[in-house]
Amino acid sequence: MMRQDSVIEVDGVTRRFGSLTAVDGVSLELGEGEFFALLGPSGCGKTTLLRLIAGFEIPDAGRILLDGNDITRLRPNRRPVNLMFQSYALFPHMTVRANIAYGLEMEKRPKDEIRSRVADILAMTELTALADRKPDKLSGGQRQRVALARALVKRPRVLLLDEPLGALDKKLREQMQLELKKLQHELGITFVVVTHDQDEALVMADRIALMKDGVIAQAGSPRELYENPASRFVAGFIGVTNFFEGRAADGGVIVDGHGLLQGTGATGIAAGERVALAVRPERIALSREAGLAGHNAVAGDIADLAYHGQDVNLLVRVDGVDRPVMVRLTAAEEEQGNFQPGQRVWCNWRPEHGRVLKD
Ligand code: ATP
Prior knowledge:
Helices cover 25% and strands 35% of the residues. The chain has helices at 46-54, 96-106, 111-124, 140-152, 170-187, 198-204, 222-227, 232-237, 331-337, and strands spanning 6-17, 20-31, 35-39, 61-66, 69-70, 81-84, 158-162, 190-195, 207-212, 215-220, 242-249, 252-255, 259-262, 264-265, 274-279, 285-287, 296-308, 311-318, 325-330, 344-349, 355-357.
């Protein structure tokens, strides 16, 4: 069933390249005015899915609908969908203004209309002062804004962006993430952004589809994916997670040497199955003398501390657990505890903050 406000519906879409299934029966709905991120590791099929929506790939099975109309076989330039190309695709011999006007000139729009639409987009993307420069006289971030303006001036129903900030350094990237989100919000156009960077997806997107091997591992709001990951893959890809390996039991996971660690379960897990209890670093409290009442508590030794401004990350070697457990404290908590490498501590977390997950 199509949601009332959905702009694009991807319905059971598959795309194969020879024996490889790049996109495998994917279904998705993109809402009106939504900022949607396709996230996942390299090769999971996110670019192929974007190209299917753009019309540069034709599915082997399934359909793509736009406003309820089947556009599966419509050519790219007949779709009210625009793909933003990387900034190196700008015309080097043309000014910013001419680069942005180009698409409208190709459509043979009246001169007055072109002039006013270009002026609007220049203002919106804060490029007015740079309108007469050529791309080689712009910074990387400015060039990226021109590429964006060039795609937006055509007023697409949906704008598709493939790693739009990929070429920028970290600081500029973080700044542009916020700018992009603000611009999308002002325009109210549906954006679909491909990224492999989970932080970027969490910062920008209203909704995320996390892909793995051509299928959607989970789709939901950033908070849903972070707080309620459906699988170990999702918990590991979104944010940092500690995994305690063991066997599923009633109410939690039995971990060698620690007995039952309580947690809330994902559905469909049978007793005795190999699973992990996932716990986020910020959910763990440290205590020095003994475990806290009402908590899961495991003992270990502090291996390392790393300062990150407001937070301190501590690595704790928990008895019998291979990988050190990451604990994130605020600087104030850490100062109060006066934690040092080599100290014996207890890691404590409430049962509801442990999640029983399998792959
Ligand atoms: P990345 O982040 O590395 O760009 P991605 O998630 O965007 O990865 P896709 O580019 O969609 O992944 O590719 C998915 C799979 O399909 C990969 O294994 C890729 O090698 C393969 N593939 C993509 N396009 C083609 C093609 N035209 N011909 C053959 N194989 C392809």
